[in-house]
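Provenance

Sequences were taken from public entries as deposited. Structures were produced by running a predictor on each sequence independently, with no templates supplied. The record for CRP-like cAMP-binding protein from Phyllobacterium trifolii is shown for reference.
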Amino acid sequence: MDGATHTHDCRVGIVKAAVPEGIQLSNRSVPDDEFSFCHSNARSFQRGEIIAGAGVLVDMFARVQRGFVSASTMLPDGREFIVEIIPKAGLIGDLEVLRRQMLNLEYRASSDCELHFFEGRLLRERYASDPRFREKVVYRALARVAELELRIISNAGSCLQSRLASTILRLSTVYGKDTPDNQDELIISQYDLAATLPASREKVNQCLRRWRERKIVDGSQGKIRILNRKALEAYADGAALVK
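Predicted structure for CRP-like cAMP-binding protein:
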């Protein structure tokens, strides 16, 4: 997408993304997913494409059907902070739809992905009428908040090596949901990895380079492969020396 298209997408946000030209209503759903709905609009996004911009009042929410989506905000110093990387079956805009609030994060495709979009009223109606579903929504929201709190606490008192190791291990679990047979490989750019910490890309590259020399991680640009998970766990725990 060019700059003009990105600007337009940021302004209209998820509402525009939910009704793309040429996309027809379908009855695709996932029976074992508590958050599946019968009717959806499907749309594919290329890696790096903006899905929805912050500051937009929406009445649509989306489910990640394939690939990964990053949710980010801008720090006061101008750096991007990726708050969350959302895997398959993750939701976008669900809480904002329930609260009738604007999106406070920008959502971007971290990989080529497919999203299914739903009308907000479907979520509100089911939330109001189904106590079990309401419990699931609250549980998911609390789990996401708790995970973010743990990351903030860990980042506040940890050195870069510890934070980076913890992030790679955590993301290996996230990416492993899409590739359960290969949880040691992450398809992520160094820019996105640095923004997830957040930290400067240069310092992250220096740390990764030392770990490559020690055979802890490997991989080319846009890919990280864990070679020595125990060593990475030791760094995550704050160990000063790893044999």
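The radius of gyration is 19 Å.
The mean pLDDT is 80.
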